[in-house]
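Quick one: structure tokens for this chain, please?
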Amino acid sequence: HHPTPGRTARPHHRGHPRHRPCRGGKHFSYDKPDSESHGRGRLLEEVDGKRGRLKIAEIYAASSKSLADRSAPLDMAISRPEDLQFLRYQWATVNSGGTKEVAGEKFFVVIGKWRTYGEDQVSGNYEMWISGSNDLRMYVVREMIIVGGAETLLIHKWDVNVKVDDQVNPKLFKVIL
């Protein structure tokens, strides 16, 4: 990633942990792209600038490569059109997997063939569990990879509770001065 268009990012070297995209609501910080810095150093940008206040999707676009666990559920929650389009291209097929019930809760299951990116060949399957109120509750990718010359099943599983139009819980964020 490069600095957000129309904004000047400045180096940030205060020893903040690698995975902290926000600082006090006025700035956000992220790792420099590896191609420019070989993974060393951070950039700091203002949330409010000459072009107005950045939206969460713009902050996410700039800082997402420095997140430890960037995932499809997080991309869906942020809902940046470019990320959603990338996910759609990963889903080679989209089918109904019927319904499942767990602990008295019913889920609609979406299943399909999965690939690393849009033009790649299919290398696995995905499934999403969606509640009756359209909340994403689970996302799984089962992918065949080669390790040491042998085919191995790699499973990525996120148990989540992404609610549609939910209020943000302020306890999830801590202001760091």
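Helices lie at 34-37, 56-63, 72-78, 81-90.
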